[in-house]
Write a structure and sequence with these properties.
about 120 residues, 3-stranded mixed beta sheet
Length: about 120
């Protein structure tokens, strides 16, 4: 029974991800003009819901906890959460956001966790 719960948690962590832009990390950088393969999408059809917040980290932390993911371990500029099939995705951003941030989150909705374990971009 413990193994099944552990597998469920791991699956949820891998499929419902909170990522993006650790504010404290200067090691994380991303070229907004980087080209990536759109044929690696998990889906080409997804319903995206946008939620806007004043305190992004607080909103992302609350959504993370609501989904049983334990909260945000660092400050973020935006975050995204998707279901296993990638048919539904929630993006939380500030009330004003740039193309790069929105595009980054939409890519998560289409391709899942495309960062590696250290937060760097998989190329």
């Amino acid at each position: 029974m413990k193994m099944k719960s552990k597998q469920k948690i791991i699956r949820q962590l891998l499929t419902t991800v909170l990522i993006i832009y650790p504010a404290f990390s200067s090691a994380y950088s991303e070229d907004p003009h980087h080209q990536f393969d759109m044929t690696h999408n998990s889906t080409d059809k997804v319903e995206i819901t946008f939620r806007y917040a004043t305190d992004i980290t607080k909103a992302c932390d609350a959504e993370s906890k609501k989904r049983g993911l334990g909260g945000m371990p660092y400050s973020v500029d935006a975050c995204s959460f998707w279901n296993w099939s990638h048919s539904e995705c929630l993006i939380i951003t500030p009330k004003t956001a740039n193309f790069h941030t929105v595009g980054h989150e939409v890519r998560h909705c289409l391709q899942g966790n495309w960062h590696d374990i250290n937060g760097e971009i998989k190329r």
